[in-house]
Design goal:
The chain has eight helices and five strands. The protein is α/β, with parallel strands linked by helices. It has a five-stranded parallel sheet. The longest helix is centred in the middle third of the chain and has 18 residues. The chain is globular. Bound molecules: shikimate-3-phosphate. The site of shikimate-3-phosphate (S3P) has 9 residues, from loops.
């Protein structure tokens, strides 16, 4: 089974993905880390030296590679992954199950204000502009996130309860 986690920056895709993969005894893949290991550069370095378009091309290429070549994994995508090119079709192909980890804007602002510096798209946004930026960005991106097979409301839920909810959706009985 191929399980793909989607959601805005700071929505817990990596943490939830690691827990879920452990529980299912599946491989855990973080798309950003995968790109970093193949490209031998961090995501902020890739944005700074090669630019976002280069990053998006690589993101699409490696996403397709993972979706086609691998099985029995949990994949944490980057916040922008579903929103570019043909990525959402690559994510939805075959037997893949996709989950949108949904949070309120207020919760994303709270979570991201502490970890802006590692995220090239928001690191230069002032804290007082963050709610408006995230609100608009999410409005544009929701169209893609909402194409996930399942939407999991995550605000104020523990990691364990989100993992349990995803597990129940995978095994309805
Ligand atoms: C991005 C999210 C990041 C990373 C890159 C772009 C985005 O991943 O892929 O900085 O466009 O939202 P996280 O969602 O893991 O922060």
């Amino acid at each position: 089974m191929k399980i793909v986690l989607l959601g805005y920056m700071g929505s817990g895709k990596t943490t939830i993905g690691q827990e879920l993969a452990g529980k299912l005894n599946y491989e855990f893949i973080d798309l950003d880390q995968y790109i970093e290991s193949v490209e031998k550069m961090t995501v902020p370095q890739l944005f700074a030296t090669k630019g976002e378009i280069y990053f998006r091309k690589k993101e699409f290429a490696y996403l397709k590679e993972i979706m086609l070549d691998k099985d029995n994994f949990v994949l944490a995508t980057g916040g922008g992954t579903p929103c570019y090119g043909d990525n959402m079709n690559a994510i939805s192909q075959g037997t893949a199950h996709s989950f949108y980890l949904k949070h309120t804007i207020a919760k994303l602002v709270e979570r991201l204000s502490k970890e802006k510096e590692f995220r090239p798209l928001i690191k230069n946004i002032h804290d007082h502009d963050l709610p408006e930026f995230i609100g608009k960005h999410l409005f544009e991106r929701n169209f893609y996130y909402n194409r996930a097979n399942f939407i999991i409301e995550c605000t104020d839920k523990s990691i364990d309860s989100v993992v349990a909810e995803i597990s129940r959706k995978l095994k309805p009985n």
